[in-house]
Amino acid sequence: EIHVKEPIEKEVNPRLLPGELLLCEASTVYKYMQEDGLNRGTYGKLVCTNFKISFLDDDSASDDNEPQFKNKIVGENDVTLQCIDQIYGVYDEKKKLLTGQLRKYPEKLIIYCKDLRVFSFCLRYTKEEEVKRIVSGIVHHSQTPKLLKRLFLFSYASAAPNNTDGRNQTVMFETLEDWRDELERTKGNVKYKAVTTNEGYRVSEKLPLYFVVPICISEESILKYEGRGIPIWCWSCHNGAALLKMSAFPKEQDDSTSQMQKAFLDGIYKTISKPPYELLKMDDLSSSLPSLQDIQTAYTRFKQLFLIDNSTDFWATDVKWFSLLESTNWLEIIRRVLKKAIEVVECLEIQHTNVLLIEESATDLCCVISSLVQVMMDSYSRTKSGFQSLIQKEWVIGGHGFLDRCNHLHKSEKEEAPVFLLLLNCVWQLVQQYPPAFEFTETYLTVLSDSLYVPIFSTFFFNSQHQRDTNKSGESLKTQSGPFRFLTVWDWSVQFDPKALAFLNNPLYAEKPKPDRSQRKTARFKHQRQLSLPLTQAKPPTKRGFFREETDHLIKNILGKRIGKFINSSEEPPNSLREFYDSWHSKPVDYHGLLLPRIDGPEIKVWAQRYLRWIPEAQLHGGGTIATAAKILDLMEEVQSLQVKMDAEHSQAVSGGIHSVPMLRNSARLSSLFPFASLQRQSVKPALPTSTWKDLEDEDDLVKRDDEFVDLSGDML
């Protein structure tokens, strides 16, 4: 049975961006609501442009009940062509993947998105000609290989007025001066130098125009093997130890070539192992971390848990959710990556050893580990501008192949791997474990992950700085020749208004206090900027994972092996690393010093806001972390108003350091996955024809059962 809402009478037209063209459309399309099995929904128009697919109903025309957190570029019923993962057609109740040319057109269209939204459209009441045009148009423009210059990025750049404000504090690392400033900031300029050897890309098109190497490395060495075998500087620790990365030589070489390369490497290693350089530890990430193929396989399995078509599917998987989650191996990969970062931190911080990360191209897992190490050790990288500068340095200019790894052009699925998403998942673990240490919120990380698929910014749509520079010149639509002016994703005002931007900033961030002049010399001498190991012993806080207090003991017995993986794994870390980890966690946290993530067992959690935000059944209304945050924000607002009154009474100027606090209306009704699911309708659990639910239906309420975990134990084992 279809619960029909009358088709709209008035014409609703899509809001088009500069350079955006309407390609095809279909009227009288019925969009299903995801949250119930009653086939409820609304009629509207489905349109496809060279930028997005958009569903327009009568609510699209009105600005009433606008959400507090709204994206100005991509609306609630919009999905960019790059964000479409897979498209299925339903033929006689059977789902079939749609690719290439279609002989028969489906009666229902299901679109799975890379941000984990699922759109279902019924085409039974649409004219046959319109069905053919819209289905073939969507499949063609989103699933078939395309040329780089065909991306909407170029259409937008040539048509949009360049009126963005220049107040972006992010360091772009496009000039020699930016690299020199970074060397000076980290006190690395004594032993390392920024080089101009690659100007005109004469060394390699994969390397950035400017980069930093040890002072003792000659220009001839850099030129010899197109930059391969050269240690490139990432960051310097306060004690002088440095993090370096190197692109390895190909493994399949003839004997004479490999002998020459080995001799070359030996010479490089000897040069950078002598004083004034610290001892060198090399780490081949291709042998110590999962392969890109393993990461892609794990994530493909993992995301299937969240691409939910309907409530029935959700409740069917809910009973065995933890065992399904475990079998994906995604959380285990996150744990292994964080563990590797802790190993590197221990070498730099405790052993005062230089660490050289080695990878075939040094643009994938090298980027993940070097970024994580800097987030853990350098409090500047935990500010918003510092984190953005870090992404620019290590990923955008560092040459991570966003175009291939995100498969934006649909050229080859073999190259696809969610490497950048893996970094954001790891950083999220730190953000949720130590919220006051970060100037940005988990919402910031979520919208950053969404921005991977918004092709109006050049940040995530090139494989290298060379590719970006060579494609910058072009003809503008206004018939005047000139270079394209690409936007950067770091100008958040393009996507959000000031009210929404407030959700990206953490109001509870503990800003770094400025030391008194009398204390500055002592602080510098003792090198206490990074390491937080005070003398007083403190009780570690009680930790809670997914499980309730009374079940903890039994769960630990059931999952003993899993929880103790860090200690008892086959790759058991050296005692010094375990001592370092335990010693740090036994003491109070300095939010401006070193941060080490907790990685034992269930401490590694699912990033709920990103992965569960579109599933109504997973939302807790009036609960979750947002409920706590709302209370704290109320208190902060009260403190700020009292401060204003006190300043007024004493005739003083109002302090300019007060952050704007986002107002949370109806905080009791907010979803735990706010701000993406602010006031969702409650979902009703359907009666499932499964023996599991039949057994459970005798109980008054599943949540009230004390032995709920017992039913899960079989799956967990």
TrEMBL record:
One Pfam family, short name: Myotub-related
Annotated protein name in UniProt: Myotubularin-related protein 12
Q: Sorted alphabetically, which keywords does the UniProt record give?
A: Cytoplasm, Sarcoplasmic reticulum
**UniProt lineage:** Eukaryota, Metazoa, Chordata, Craniata, Vertebrata
SUPFAM superfamilies, per the entry = (Phosphotyrosine protein) phosphatases II, PH domain-like
Where does it localize?
A: Cytoplasm, Myofibril, Sarcomere; Sarcoplasmic reticulum
Q: Which residues form the Myotubularin phosphatase domain?
A: 173-611
Q: Where is the signal peptide?
A: none
**One GO process term, biological-process aspect:** phosphatidylinositol dephosphorylation
* InterPro entries reported in the protein's UniProt record: MTMR12-like_C, MTMR12_PTP, Myotubularin, Myotubularin-like_Pase_dom, PH-like_dom_sf, Prot-tyrosine_phosphatase-like
Tell me what organism the protein belongs to.
Answer: Chloropsis hardwickii
